[in-house]
């Protein structure tokens, strides 16, 4: 350790430095601060569950010895951890039991600590010594030295957990070689979800069955989706999940745009407001086959927009009911969302285009679906705002 030479009756100030990269990774309880009484909870009616409880005080001991190892003084240091300032918060979603590999580019923030005053406006680049530390020792966190002028990335490798676990940790970025004070502190929440792959066609309704397994107690469960307009769940409301039982949840997906998208579906205990299970729905959406293509010119800054009619013929020999859908409901409205025609008869679909204040063109898809939301025909309407 360090040595200090003292003359008789001389006093000196001894600086102390305490630094720890470990922290409490426990997450807050899901639900209100006070649990309702009489709900079968292990907490009493007046028991408060707070995630902002004060961390325990740490006691450290510092000893001062002479050259002959004679004990001169013993100093007890009480370290009270205080919450730190979080510069950025990241919330990531990943399939369960899989390693999460993520590269995050460092932002060009200014005024790194410990730099001279005339260099405060200098950008943080590869010439600056950057070190990173993670609060969880089980997570691989590192950065690489690059050539000057190239952006710097922080690489993370997080071990997976079963659904619906949430892993929380902190990443500290240092720009001084002594790692005395972090320049930035990032907080990460990694949600591990059960992955469900669905392939479907835009405009059509696809069905997928999910399995929800009961625990040791009876639960009242309800499912919530991240996109309620495109994902419907059956049962829709609250249902009872018996202990050690298997409940089949039917998911109905009806996306409106082609491409790859990610939705989230959560099963929640409505009484205790606890998360039971989560699904990561990975959609591979294909573009439908177009039957006809139309082009419409709409004046810019018009008050009434524009109207157009499209003829549709019933391909069946019996009387059928059809539904009209659009991937841009904010720009296109139908005169009637539902119509019924006989076998082989024709019907004029009334379209009403909303006005716009800017010029340009938009491609709008019009779906003619059956009552089972199966697409019979798809029309493409190119709207030119001039």
UniProtKB/TrEMBL annotation:
GO CC aspect terms: ciliary basal body; ciliary base; ciliary transition zone; non-motile cilium
**From which source organism is this entry?**
Tetraodon nigroviridis (Spotted green pufferfish)
Domain NPHP4 Ig-like, residue spans: 2-83, 90-191, 203-284, 291-385
Q: What is this protein called?
A: Nephrocystin 4
One GO biological-process annotation of the entry reads: negative regulation of canonical Wnt signaling pathway
User: Which InterPro entries does this one have?
Assistant: Ig_NPHP4_1st, Ig_NPHP4_2nd, Ig_NPHP4_3rd, Ig_NPHP4_4th, NPHP4
Which Pfam families does this entry report, sorted A to Z?
A: Ig_NPH4_3rd (PF26015), Ig_NPHP4_1st (PF26190), Ig_NPHP4_2nd (PF26189), Ig_NPHP4_4th (PF26187)
